[in-house]
Design goal:
The protein has 385 residues and is an alpha+beta fold. It contains twelve helices and nine strands.
Length: 385
């Protein structure tokens, strides 16, 4: 396989890397973290605006939607740079939501795309529940004939650990319909019956617990067309969204691991013990080499999943494998980076800790390593039977 970027992807990656390296500095991240600790939503609004002005939010969308048609792969090259700088922006959440809206949204929902591409509308998937499977939500949608004078839905349920949930202007909410089919609903944050409560998360950026108590939405807020003859597109949306968010999380980690290893390599070449650089010690070199191999494994499996999704090939196994590597190998890498930094790795003024926290949060998001192996094992067993 050739995972080299094409000319357009390379240019997009270079642009994203330049903006993020200049503006998502350790000093700026400390400011955002202080604001979040004081009650802020954890989003660097200036950087978010800069990314939008540079066209990085719009680039993955088709040209007819105001973008450059670079799709999921285009979003992926930016996501690696976001991870590399541990940037405090909801790029993954909003761009993946925009791609879902562009593909499955009704005309009314698609009207939100220009605002999403401009950065003035933050949208995030609310996928996780305290109990239940990601692909079989406990939250429900029941018929409501009073929604805006037209047939609509009343939503009930609770979503936890919603990323960028305190900053979001709208949510993509998976629900179960009365016929036991699943779907995803576009729900503005100001909808009556929707409330959110701040949840402080591992990486220091607040997430949200989102409660729905009879929240009313119009019928066209549901993504995907419906058909009484079966085979409804509506039922495809949740799997489509979960697969892409999962693969995108793996790419985010790949970028973070690359930068954490770069920082570690620089440190052990300069730090001396017994008048010798740490990098010359065999045990240090072996540990760093193992971490490098793990990091490359994360990047390889993440891009394999993203590529297959972007060209329309079956990718369920590859997505699961990518998330397993991001969780399992990702943890080995950041632990190595912390260990090789010694005492300074524990100093919150030194930036390497951000990559440790980011990798841990992604490990926990949408299921850790063990659930991924269990899911993959079930599919292998089913195929063999």
């Amino acid at each position: 396989m050739d995972f080299e970027f094409d000319e357009d992807q390379a240019a997009l990656s270079e642009l994203a890397g330049r903006i993020l390296s200049e503006r998502s500095t350790p000093e700026r991240l400390k400011e955002i973290e202080a604001e979040a600790s004081a009650g802020g939503d954890g989003v660097d609004r200036k950087l978010w605006s800069d990314l939008a002005e540079a066209g990085l939010l719009a680039a993955p969308l088709p040209e007819e939607s105001g973008g450059a048609g670079m799709g999921l792969a285009g979003a992926g090259v930016v996501l690696e740079e976001v991870g590399r700088r541990a940037a405090a922006v909801p790029y993954l959440e909003t761009v993946l939501s925009a791609l879902a809206v562009e593909r499955f949204g009704s005309e009314a929902v698609r009207e939100s795309l220009p605002a999403m591409a401009a950065g003035s509308l933050i949208v995030t998937p609310a996928l996780t529940e305290a109990q239940g499977d990601l692909r079989f939500p406990v939250a429900t949608a029941s018929p409501d004939t009073d929604a805006g004078g037209a047939s609509g839905w009343k939503l009930d349920g609770e979503k936890i650990c919603v990323p960028a949930g305190m900053a979001a202007d709208a949510f993509l909410v998976p629900v179960m319909f009365p016929d036991r089919s699943t779907g995803v609903v576009f729900v503005p944050a100001g909808t009556a019956g929707l409330t959110r409560v701040r949840q402080d998360a591992t990486a220091g950026r607040p997430e949200a617990l989102v409660r729905l108590s009879g929240a009313r939405v119009a019928g066209d807020a549901v993504l995907g067309s419906d058909s009484s003859g079966g085979g409804s597109e509506r039922e495809e949306v949740l799997d489509w969204l979960v697969d892409r968010v999962t693969a995108a999380l793996a790419l985010l980690v790949a970028g973070a691991l690359d930068e954490a290893l770069r920082m570690t390599a620089a440190y052990v070449k300069e730090r001396k013990q017994f008048d010798r650089p740490l990098a010359t010690f065999q045990a240090v070199g072996q540990r760093a080499a193992d971490a490098y191999i793990d990091a490359m494994g994360v990047r390889l499996t993440a891009w394999q999943a993203v590529w297959r999704l972007s060209v329309g090939l079956p990718a369920s196994d590859e997505v699961t494998i990518a998330k397993y590597w991001a969780s399992e190998a990702g943890q080995r890498v950041v632990h190595t980076c912390q260990h090789l930094h010694g005492g300074i790795g524990m100093d919150r003024d030194y930036p390497v800790h951000r990559y440790f926290l980011l990798a841990k949060q992604v490990d926990l998001a949408l299921g850790g390593a063990a659930p991924q192996l269990a899911d993959l094992g079930k599919r292998i067993a089913a195929a063999a039977s």
